[in-house]
Structure formats: structure tokens, C-alpha cells
Specification:
The complex is a heterodimer of chains A (237) and B (263).
Chain A lengths: L8 H34 L2 H32 L3 H36 L8 H24 L2 H31 L4 H33 L8 H11 L1
Helix pairs in contact in A: 1-2, 1-3, 1-4, 2-3, 3-6, 4-5, 4-6, 5-6
Chain B lengths: L12 E12 L2 E12 L3 E5 L6 H8 L9 E9 L4 E2 L7 H7 E4 L10 H11 L5 H14 L3 H4 L12 H14 L4 E5 L7 H14 L4 E5 L3 H7 L2 E6 L2 E7 H6 L4 H7 L5
Parallel strand pairs in B: 3-8, 3-9, 6-7, 7-8
Antiparallel strand pairs in B: 1-2, 1-4, 4-5, 9-10
Classes of the chains: A mainly alpha (237), B alpha/beta (263).
């Protein structure tokens, strides 16, 4: 892209700092979600504590990056793509922080499930698959953010439906378990919370992808259907 | 939520530059400028030094006529009568009655506050005291200066502060009820408070008059204008709604300039 650097080297370095910290935060959140899903599968209580501790780091990242964004707005009055980057990053950071909350929720439920005596529900593999899909979406969204790649972001948005389908599949199976043996109801409800948390993580990854499109093309594709998203993208291209 | 922007085709035009070239002797300072000026809207001209924005502004009141060797090609039509301001048959004095200019530095005449505002009216032959008083008050009120000077109208204009002097110049420009107000960096000599009061005034004045403003301060353009034109070495690079120019410019050159990547 022509004229990629500002006259002010400090401005360039401030923007770069924001971007790299978001990616670092994303890496931390990604590891946190993986650990949370691992806890769900294994019941490893040490890792549960690890996930909770990580939450504090994630929160600190959120506050820190928002503070950087406020400083850039106050001191530089960013315009055009710089402005869109700051706005997009600020929103993406909120999504990442909420993903962290969801990871913590997964570990909380995992603890309850593993501490409970009684019939278990053998859905680890399904939940794990759904979790892996969500983590992959997050990883791709962060990658799209790093490379400012709106095409990849579009693919991520369209593939969010896969996680939703997985969630509905898990829900159907859980209903079957509950109907067959009401003693599984408590555990099934907790697994629903886990599956829902994973589905929400997928939604947040999609939100980040939407911000990538906004940053690069300046088109706001949130709350738009596929068709409208395409026409907005054509208009922005 | 930002208000939806009306369709440009539905907005009334106040003026239109068409294929406008301008030459300082052999040097071509403006190249084929095509640009609409919408009625009762604020249009900001931005661009690096030497891009031609002030030259373009000065075409509107034929200021370039004051120097020999300057030459216009193309036209600026003023609506609704569709008269070409640049046509040799059009008297520049007539043009200047319809378009008033406010300059970078406040330039009150060495006269009283009252006489500064009354000056343009007197030139037009208005001499009845009652009419002058009425018009001067109206112009001073429109320029948000009346309350500060109503008890000292016979004081010399130089006794006012810089910001007040600039508002006096705006009042003087408004007294003759121009159709377009031209501002050439009107706040570059003012402090931030006086700047804010002039910006506030510009926003109020667009209720009654069309405004064209040259500014080096991009944030000022973003704050006060409805439309922004980015110019570079005599060419109009991009013209559009100010929101679009500052959030999502179409041209990479515009984006580079407004994000501080290129001057």
C-alpha cells in the first residue's frame, strides 16, 4: 500500500503497539479456551485454576489496550483507516475478554460435572470437536486481524454456522439423555452451558472477523445477512 | 446514530465549478476543477500547502483580477440565476456583493465597530441611520458579537480581542447579506477558545448562508463542514460528505493525507 508510514514515527509505533498487544491478548485467550476445554475433558483441577488465573491477565490486557486506544484518540485524532483500526480493535478486545469469561464458565461447569457422582454423559468428543472448531475460528480471526485480510474474515463469518450446527446437535443428544434417564438432567444442563459457551466463543470470533472487514473496507457488516453482507462488501471494495 | 445523508441529487446547488483552470501567468495553479457547492452547507477545502485551495477560494470573489497576468479558464456558475462569476462581462464588484470573504487574520478597518459593519452598506448607498442601525445590529447578532459590543459601538474596532475582531469581520461580511461566505483559514491566528466560537458560529451561519472554508486544520474541517474537498497540486482529488472523507475516503491519496502519511 502506498504511503504506509506516518510522518510521525511515534504514531506508527503507537498503532503497531496496539495491534501487537491485541494479537498477544488473542494468543492468551486462545490458550485459555484450549485449557478450559481440556479441563472439561479431563477434570484436571490444576488446569482449572490456571484458566481462572489467566482471566486476570486477559482483563488486564483489555484495560491496557483500551487505555492505549483512548490515548491515541486524544493525542492523534486518528482518521480513516487509523480511526477504523482503533474502533475495530477496541471492539475486538471486548470480544476477546468475553471469550475469556466463557472459558472460565466452561471450567466452572467442568468442575461441577467432574465432582458430581452419578451417571456421566459420554459427550466429551462432541463437545471437544465443537470447542476445536471455535478455537480454530478464533485463531483464523486473529490471523485475519494480523494480516488485515477481509477475504479470510468473510470465510470465517460464513463458517460460524458450523459451530451453531454442532451446538444444536449436542443439544439434541442431551435431550435424549435427559429423557432416558432423568438423573442425568443436572449434568446435561451443565454440558449445555459448556456447549453454549463454546458457541458464544464462535460468535465472538465472528465479531472479530467483522471488525477486520470494517477496518480494511470501512463497511459495517454486523447484523447483516449474507446477501446484505455481500452487497456491502461489493460497495466497499 | 448518524443521520442518513440525503441523496446528492436532491440537494440544491449554490454554485458549480466546471472545468476550472487558473493560471498565475504561465503557472497553472488549478487544473480542471469540477466541484459542486451545495446551498446552505459548509464545504471545506483541505490539502497541503500549494495545493490550490486558497487559489480556488479566491476565484469565487474574483480576487485574482487584482493582479495582471492571472487567467481563468472554465467557469463557476452561481445559482439560482446560473451566472458565470468568471465571465469578463460580470463586474467583480457585483460578484463581491454576493460573496463575502473573511481572511486568515482579522482585518477590521481603522474605524469604529459600528462603521466597520456599516461600511459595505454605505458603499451600497444605504445611508439612513435607522436602516444602518438595524442592519448593523442584525449582522452583529448573527456573528454572535452583539452582546459583547452593544454598549461600545463607537469604540475603535482595534480595541476588540482577536476573536472578537474576527467575528466583527464576519459581521461586516454578513451585513450586505451575501449568498456565500468565503473563509480563508479564519481561525489560524486565534486561540482555541476564539477558534471554538468561530466554529460554533460557522455551524449557526449555515442556516442562512452557504459557506466555503479553506483550512489547514483537518480536524476543523471534520468538525464544521458537511462536505470536504481534498486538493493536491491544483487538482481536486476527492470530494464527498465529510463523514465519508474522514472515515472511509475512496482515494488512497486522500487517505494518506488525512491520516498524516503524506503531505
Amino acid at each position: 500500500m502506498p504511503h504506509s508510514e506516518h510522518f510521525s514515527k511515534q504514531y506508527d509505533s503507537d498503532l503497531e503497539d496496539v495491534r501487537s498487544r491485541v494479537l498477544q491478548m488473542g494468543g492468551v485467550v486462545e490458550a485459555q479456551i484450549l485449557a478450559a476445554i481440556e479441563c472439561f475433558s479431563s477434570g484436571d483441577t490444576e488446569r482449572m485454576t490456571e484458566v481462572t488465573d489467566t482471566e486476570l491477565r486477559v482483563n488486564a490486557y483489555e484495560v491496557d489496550i483500551d487505555d492505549l486506544c483512548v490515548h491515541i484518540v486524544a493525542r492523534r485524532q486518528p482518521a480513516a483507516r487509523d480511526l477504523r483500526l482503533i474502533m475495530g480493535v477496541s471492539k475486538a478486545v471486548t470480544d476477546l475478554e468475553r471469550m475469556g469469561d466463557e472459558a472460565e464458565k466452561i471450567t466452572r461447569m467442568a468442575r461441577l460435572i467432574h465432582e458430581r457422582k452419578g451417571p456421566q454423559i459420554p459427550l466429551q468428543a462432541e463437545v471437544r470437536r465443537s470447542g476445536d472448531l471455535a478455537v480454530a475460528q478464533l485463531r483464523r480471526a486473529l490471523d485475519a486481524m494480523a494480516r488485515l485480510d477481509p477475504d479470510e474474515a468473510e470465510r470465517i463469518i460464513s463458517e460460524d454456522a458450523l459451530i451453531d450446527t454442532e451446538f444444536r446437535g449436542i443439544l439434541r443428544q442431551l435431550i435424549t439423555f435427559m429423557m432416558e434417564d432423568p438423573r442425568t438432567i443436572s449434568t446435561a444442563l451443565e454440558i449445555i452451558w459448556v456447549a453454549k459457551a463454546i458457541e458464544r466463543i464462535g460468535d465472538h470470533a465472528k465479531n472479530i472477523a467483522e471488525q477486520v472487514i470494517y477496518i480494511v473496507r470501512g463497511t459495517d457488516v454486523r447484523h447483516t445477512g449474507k446477501e446484505r453482507r455481500r452487497s456491502a462488501t461489493d460497495e466497499g471494495a | 446514530m448518524a443521520e442518513p445523508k440525503p441523496d446528492l441529487d436532491t440537494l440544491p446547488l449554490k454554485a458549480q465549478a466546471s472545468a476550472l483552470d487558473f493560471y498565475y501567468g504561465d503557472f497553472q495553479a488549478l487544473k480542471k476543477i469540477d466541484m459542486p457547492i451545495y446551498e446552505k452547507r459548509v464545504t471545506a477545502l483541505i490539502g497541503p500547502s500549494g495545493c490550490g485551495k486558497s487559489t480556488f477560494l479566491r476565484c469565487f470573489n474574483r480576487m485574482h483580477d487584482l493582479y495582471p497576468g492571472n487567467r481563468y479558464v472554465g467557469e463557476i456558475s452561481l445559482h439560482p440565476d446560473n451566472v458565470n462569476l468568471l465571465d469578463k462581462s460580470v463586474d467583480p464588484i457585483e460578484v463581491r456583493m454576493r460573496l463575502s470573504m473573511v481572511f486568515q487574520k482579522p482585518n477590521p478597518f481603522p474605524k469604529t465597530i459600528f462603521e466597520n459593519v456599516a461600511y459595505g452598506l454605505r458603499v451600497r448607498g444605504v445611508n439612513r441611520r435607522a436602516i444602518l442601525e438595524e442592519k448593523v445590529e442584525e449582522a452583529l447578532r448573527a456573528a454572535a458579537l452583539w452582546n459583547e459590543v452593544k454598549d461600545r459601538l463607537q469604540d475603535m474596532a482595534f480595541n476588540l480581542s482577536g476573536g472578537q475582531q474576527q467575528r466583527l469581520c464576519i459581521a461586516r461580511a454578513l451585513a450586505t447579506e451575501p449568498e456565500i461566505l468565503l473563509f480563508d483559514e479564519p481561525t489560524s491566528a486565534l486561540d482555541p477558545i476564539a477558534t471554538a466560537s468561530i466554529e460554533e458560529l460557522i455551524t449557526e451561519l449555515k442556516q442562512r448562508v452557504t459557506i466555503l472554508i479553506v483550512t489547514h486544520n483537518m480536524q476543523q474541517a471534520a468538525r464544521v463542514s458537511d462536505f470536504t474537498a481534498y486538493m493536491y497540486i491544483g487538482e481536486l482529488v476527492e470530494f464527498g460528505w465529510t463523514d465519508d472523507i474522514f472515515i472511509k475516503p475512496k482515494n488512497p491519496q486522500t487517505e494518506a493525507y488525512i491520516t498524516g502519511r503524506f503531505g
